[in-house]
Structure formats: structure tokens, C-alpha cells
Amino acid sequence: MRLSALSLGFLSVALAARPFLNEADTGIEDVFGALPAGTLPELSRIVGLSDFDWAARRYLNISAYTYYRNGAAGEWSYRNNLEVFHRFRFRPRVMVDITNIESTLPTTLLGHNFSAPFFISPCARGGLAHPEAERGLVRGAAAENILYMPALFATLSIEDIAAAKTEDQVVFQQVYLDSNDTATQLLFDRIERSGAKAIIFTVDSAADGNRHRAARFGVGSADSSYSLITWDIYKQLQNMTSLPIIIKGIMSVEDARGAVAAGAPAIILSNHGGRQLDSSPSSLEVALEIHEEAPEIFTQTEVYADGGVRYGADVLKLLALGVRAVGLGRPFMFANAYGAEGVQRAIQLLKREIAIDAGNLGVADLKAINSSFVKWTPNLWL
Ligand SMILES: Cc1cc2nc3c(=O)[nH]c(=O)nc-3n(C[C@H](O)[C@H](O)[C@H](O)COP(=O)(O)O)c2cc1C
Ligand SMILES: *[C@@H]1O[C@H](CO)[C@@H](O)[C@H](O)[C@H]1NC(C)=O
Ligand SMILES: *[C@@H]1O[C@H](CO)[C@@H](O)[C@H](O)[C@H]1NC(C)=O
Ligand SMILES: *[C@@H]1O[C@H](CO)[C@@H](O)[C@H](O)[C@H]1NC(C)=O
Ligand SMILES: *[C@@H]1O[C@H](CO)[C@@H](O)[C@H](O)[C@H]1NC(C)=O
Ligand SMILES: *[C@@H]1O[C@H](CO)[C@@H](O)[C@H](O)[C@H]1NC(C)=O
């Protein structure tokens, strides 16, 4: 397409005129704007995941809110994670019997049954939102039978989180590792004893995160050292535990291939919620790269993805490319300001959005969604 000087001029004016919206304006300000700071809106009147961000911003103190909210540097990746979904339009199909769609949400992750193809991504310091800290997340996940991934740097210990699980509840434990094999072995043994069913090894944070917003309040990354992380080390780690080790933080097709070659049972496409390297790609862009260059990867290992997911429609776009399950971080941390009930409501809202959006998209069976339901030419105006 040829762009004339006039349309280029119009483009820059249009771009300059469009402000970034942390949450789209859907009227929450009109309904709850008069609530005094430090109070939460009634939970039953929260209508979507973005509402939890608005509510937490009013309720938490600024350093606690900033720890959850911040992204790296100019936060271009943070914003891109949120905005990228809207650059790709659906290709809805009609005249499809979708009346059974809800029954197709349950899925398995590494052989474990869950009620929906989304999970709670590992986020440190749950105690900044609620005195019950990660208990709210583990109990909310149990009530709705979705997967929770506790973070190593959670407010509560691995053992305290395990103690809050229901009898059959499955969690996957996240870790950061330094190069101390003795400490790693002790940690892996602790995780096995806690009953976690997999280890999530975060590899996107080899160096400290460059976090401007957080630095103003001294609430930067909990993992600030330079870490030695290589494929050889990953292979050694696999010898140190009987648990599957999932790699979190894949951002290119080359590394997705490397993970398959190293025998990773699952990978998580993630730029850490835009908190580590600004200008790192969103997981939707990475999933698209894999779809175009090495689609077989989606069947060679289980591919999960997170970052910027706020709506059922966002989940559908990732699943359309072959992603098996989608993670959310901040929405659940903010929902946890209400404790377990808030986390449960967030899960219920997202389940319903996935089902009704899939229905309107003309998807009869969520497991059979494929890339034909999205137009993969980006709309550059957004
Ligand atoms: C407050 C906060 C703490 C986080 N802590 C960790 C962590 O300890 N380990 C980790 O692997 N990822 C961590 N992450 C990244 C999340 O696992 C996830 O990749 C990210 O939050 C997804 O983006 P979203 O918040 O837009 O959903 C953290 C994210 C946030 C927001
Ligand atoms: C998972 O679900 C399948 C199908 O419903 C069932 O056969 C299987 O026993 C379940 N597994 C567990 C561990 O509950
Ligand atoms: C903010 O809230 C957190 C969690 O309640 C608390 O630990 C912290 O001390 C508070 N910080 C300030 C500056 O009030
Ligand atoms: C490695 O970890 C072990 C167990 O925590 C500890 O005793 C030891 O001091 C650590 N070694 C180094 C070099 O830090
Ligand atoms: C893992 O253990 C197996 C069997 O003991 C051994 O053959 C292999 O070399 C080990 N791999 C690494 C990377 O340590
Ligand atoms: C994708 O799904 C549509 C609708 O179910 C179906 O008609 C089409 O054959 C599928 N395409 C592929 C490549 O499987």
C-alpha cells in the first residue's frame, strides 16, 4: 500500500491524539468515582478483570500498587502487551451450533485436569494486597479448579501455601535459581515434599529488571543479580528432580526450538508482563512467529503464554495459534485485594467471557479453535 504525505500526516495526528488507557473507559469511574480512596467497590458489581486494576489503584497505597503495576523502563512492552490483541481482528463465523461451548472449556496441563485453559501466573509478594497473601490465590484457584503457580518470592513460604491447598489441588512451583547446586537441590527437594506437580524455571530474568516506576518507591525486582542460565544448566537441573521442569520466559522461535530439543515438557511464552526488558515482544507476537516458522512446536511440547490478557477475546486469540493455556498475573494480584472471593470472581468472569466470546465467534469446541478465526494482518491504527 502507498501512503501519501496526507495520509501519513493524518496517521501521526491520529496516533498522537490517542492516549494510552490502562483500562478502557467502560464507565467504572461514573459508578464508583465518588468512593473515597482506600475503599473497594462492592465485589458483585465488578464486571470485568480490568475493574480490579482500577479498584486496587484506589485501595492499595501507592508503593504496593506500583510494585504490582510497574513495567520496565518506558513501559512500551507493558503497554504493547495490553494493546497488541486489538491489532488483530476476529473472523467470526455464523450458523454454527455453539450451544455446547461451555462444556469444552476444561483441559489438561501436563496430564492434570483443570476446568479452564487459563492459570494464575507466578507473582511475588501477594501480601501487599491482602493480609491472607497467597492463601487468597491458592483458595480462589481451588474453588474454581484452575492451575495456580506460586512464586518463589511469594509472601508466604512454599510450605504455608501448600498447607492452604485442598486435598487434590495441583500447583506448579516457580523458581529463580542462582548457581549454587547445593541450594538448588535443597529447594527442589522442598518443592517435591510440598506436593507441587511441576517446577516453573523462569529464564527471562538473567539480569535485574530496568524498572523506573518501581525505583521511585524502592519496590524493584526481587531477583536483581546476574544469573547464569544456559541449556546445559537446564539439562543438569532435569537430573536433580523427578518433577517436570517448565521453562518460563521464551520470546523467540529459536528458543522455543531449543526448549523442545532440551526435552522441556512445556514452555511459557512470556516477557514477564513487560517488567524485564522493554521492547521485548508480547507472547501473542511470539506465538505468531512460532505459528509462521515452526508450527510443529505446538504439538511437540505444551505451549502456554502470558502477558496483558484481560478479556476472554484475548485468550481466544492465543488459543487460536495453538497455545494450550493462558496465564494472568496482575489481574489476579489486584483481585486478591478482596481475598479468595475476589480471585474466584475474577476466574468466573473470565470463564464466562471465554465461553460467550467463543460462541459469538462461531467456535463450537474450544479445543478445535484454529488460526482461521483471526485475521493475522495487523491493523496498524491501533
Ligand atoms: C507483581 C508481579 C510479580 C511477579 N513476580 C514474578 C516472579 O516472581 N516470577 C516470575 O516468573 N514471574 C513473575 N511475574 C511475571 C508473571 O508471572 C507474568 O509473566 C506476568 O504478570 C504476566 O503479565 P500480566 O501481569 O499482564 O498478566 C510477576 C509479575 C507481577 C505483575
Ligand atoms: C481427568 O479427567 C478424565 C476425563 O474426565 C478422567 O478420566 C480422569 O480420571 C481425570 N483425572 C484425574 C486425575 O482426576
Ligand atoms: C503499603 O501497604 C503495604 C501492604 O499493606 C505495607 O506493607 C506498606 O508498609 C505500606 N507502605 C506505605 C508507604 O504505607
Ligand atoms: C550454597 O548453598 C548452601 C545451602 O544453602 C550454603 O550452605 C552455601 O553457603 C552456599 N554456597 C555459597 C558459595 O554461597
Ligand atoms: C543426567 O543423568 C544421566 C543418567 O545418570 C546421565 O547420563 C547424564 O549425563 C546426566 N546429564 C547431565 C546434563 O548431567
Ligand atoms: C479451522 O476451523 C474451521 C472451523 O471449524 C474449519 O472449517 C477449518 O477446516 C479449520 N482449519 C484447519 C486448518 O484445521
Features:
16 helices, TIM Barrel, 8-stranded parallel sheet
Major sheet attributes:
8 strands, parallel
Q: Can you say what the CATH homologous superfamily is?
A: Aldolase class I
List each distinct ligand once.
flavin mononucleotide, 2-acetamido-2-deoxy-beta-D-glucopyranose
What is the CATH topology descriptor? Answer: TIM Barrel
Binding site for FMN: 122-124, 174, 202, 248, 270, 306-310, 329-330
Pfam family, one: FMN_dh
Active site: 272 (proton acceptor)
Signal peptide: 1-16
Give me a quick take on this structure.
FMN binds at residues 122-124, 174, 202, 248, 270, 306-310, 329-330. This protein has 382 residues and is of the alpha/beta class.
Topology record:
Blueprint: H1 5-17, H2 28-32, H3 49-59, H4 62-69, H5 76-83, E1 107-109, E2 112-114, E3 118-120, H6 134-144, E4 147-148, H7 158-163, E5 172-175, H8 181-194, E6 198-202, H9 212-215, H10 231-238, E7 245-250, H11 253-261, E8 266-269, H12 283-293, H13 297-300, E9 302-306, H14 312-320, E10 325-328, H15 330-335, H16 340-361
Parallel strand pairs: 3-4, 3-10, 5-6, 6-7, 7-8, 8-9, 9-10
Antiparallel strand pairs: 1-2
Can you walk me through this structure?
This protein has 382 residues and is of the alpha/beta class. The protein has one domain: TIM Barrel, CATH 3.20.20.70. Helices cover 39% and strands 10% of the residues. The protein is built from 16 helices and ten strands. Strands 4-3-10-9-8-7-6-5 form an eight-stranded parallel sheet. Strand 3, helix 6 and strand 4 form a beta-alpha-beta unit. The chain starts with a helix and ends in a 21-residue tail after the last helix. It binds flavin mononucleotide and 2-acetamido-2-deoxy-beta-D-glucopyranose (5 copies). The site of one 2-acetamido-2-deoxy-beta-D-glucopyranose has 3 residues, from loops.
